[in-house]
Amino acid sequence: MCGRFYVDPEDEYFRELAERISSSPLTGRFRGKLPANADGEYGGEVVPTSVVPVLAPNRTGEQTVFPMQWGYTLPASGDRKPPLIINARSETAAEKPLFCDSWRQRRCAIPATAYFEWEHRMGFDGKPKVGSKYRIAPTGRKRIFLAGLYRMENGLPTFVILTRAPADNLFWMHDRMPMMLPEAEVPGWISPDRKPENFLSLTLTDTSWKKVSDGSIGSRT
């Protein structure tokens, strides 16, 4: 899965994206916030409900930067907090009622530097446990483009990140990973005239990682 990702605040590319959405009338209407470092610059660890710059086509089909909030909100049930859906499986999105329309017509790409994952393994009691935290990115690439879907909620765009089976060298860590596209494939991916199935084989799987937190087994920090 992909539950958090990272944006390098020192990368001028992301600063420009943040500047471009800062003038959007949509930005001030979100309840979530644009992640920022101590200096107030866009970047750092991005968590669900954050508002971030996302690449999607405008009404004329041109690639444009939009502010979008991470997560589809489902209807509340009783007194429970409305569930938040942050990921969609690329293998089944075309069949799921929640995602099928977006899969066909509303695809996006989320620029980032890397993503985070926690090691999952079986504990001595036979139950899944969560261990160390890792920062992961395609080998030799300064940026990644996470494949996503979006929809409108109360007049505001929200997105989910597509996931796939992990690369061979990541199976030991987790049974899913985000679908990451080369930058050159982003315009085709977001185009509603293209078939999304054709991009599944183009995803980046050659990755490297770095442990960023040991954490105790069973905790998530």
The level 1 CATH classification is Alpha Beta
Instruction: Find the count of extended strands (DSSP E, 2+ residues).
Output: 15
Approximate strand percentage: 35-45%
Q: In the CATH classification, which architecture applies? A: Alpha-Beta Complex
Strand and helix layout:
Blueprint: E1 4-7, H1 12-22, E2 44-46, E3 51-57, E4 63-70, E5 72-73, E6 84-85, E7 87-89, H2 100-105, E8 107-112, E9 114-122, E10 128-138, E11 144-153, E12 156-164, E13 177-178, E14 180-181, H3 186-190, E15 207-213
What does this entry show, briefly?
The chain has helices at 12-22, 100-105, 186-190, and strands spanning 4-7, 44-46, 51-57, 63-70, 72-73, 84-85, 87-89, 107-112, 114-122, 128-138, 144-153, 156-164, 177-178, 180-181, 207-213. With 221 residues, it is mainly β. The protein is globular, with a radius of gyration of 17 Å.
Polypeptide structure, described:
- This protein is mainly beta.
- The protein has a single domain (4-117, 146-164, 174-207), classed as hypothetical protein yedk fold (Alpha-Beta Complex), CATH 3.90.1680.10.
- 10% of the residues lie in helices and 38% in strands.
- It has 3 helices and 15 strands.
- It has helices at 12-22, 100-105, 186-190, and strands at 4-7, 44-46, 51-57, 63-70, 72-73, 84-85, 87-89, 107-112, 114-122, 128-138, 144-153, 156-164, 177-178, 180-181, 207-213.
- Strands 3, 4, 7, 8, 11, 12, 13 and 14 form an 8-stranded mixed sheet that branches. A 5-stranded antiparallel sheet has the order 2-1-9-10-15, with no helix packed on it. A two-stranded antiparallel sheet has the order 5-6.
- A hairpin with a 5-residue loop joins strand 9 (114-122) and strand 10 (128-138).
- The longest helix has 11 residues, at 12-22.
- It is globular.
- It starts with a strand and ends in an 8-residue tail after the last strand.
